[in-house]
Amino acid sequence: MTPFKGVTIGDANAGATDTLTITIGGAGGKLADGAGFSGLHNAGAGVYWLSGTAAAITGELDALVFTPKAGSPNTSSTTTFTLSDLSSAGGPPAVDSTTSVIDSDTPVAPTIAGTVSGQTTTMEVPVTPSRA
Q1: Nearest to 13 by CA among 87, 95, 86
Q2: Do 51 and 60 touch, CB atoms closer than 8 A?
Q3: Rounded distance, CA 8 to CA 92, Å?
Q4: pTM, to two decimals
């Protein structure tokens, strides 16, 4: 899942390098580089960062892959993301915390395993069914 598809980073400062920090909150999960990119850094504790031009960061955001933390069957959980972009040209960071993902885990049917067919007995002697 790519939760940042369509998110655009902009920096009007010519020649500036941006550092985008992504903080995962709520239910949690993990981010990974997508196809064709390898610029994501994991700072630990649900904090990741990217650095480069605004255009390069935008391209990486389009490709990032988010894997939600596994939930229990028949539940749902919400993961929130805070994006903070800081320009090397100075000024305060631009911060956004509107992106979220809701992960719904469907119910799982019970299973029966280990049964054995064709067990035999003679003259109605009681048999204790065995497992495979």
Answers
A1: 87
A2: no
A3: 18
A4: 0.81
| Number of other CB atoms surrounding residue 23 within 10 Å | 16
Model confidence pLDDT, tens digit, residues 13-39: 999 999 999 999 999 999 999 888 889
Q: Measuring CA to CA, which residue among 66, 96, 65 is closest to residue 79?
A: 66
CA atoms within 13 A on the CB side of 23: 10
- How many other C-beta atoms lie within 10 A of the C-beta of residue 59? 17
Q: Give the tokens for residue 113.
A: 């395993």
What's the half-sphere exposure (Cβ side, CA atoms, 13 Å) at 127?
Answer: 12
d(CA 16, CA 11): 7
Contacts of 42 (CB under 8 A, 6+ apart): 31, 48
The alpha carbon torsion through 56, 40, 60, 49 (nearest 10 deg) reads: -70
Kindly state the tokens that stand for 51: 């650095």
Summarize pLDDT for 65-102 with one digit per residue, the tens: 999 998 888 999 999 999 999 999 999 999 999 999 99
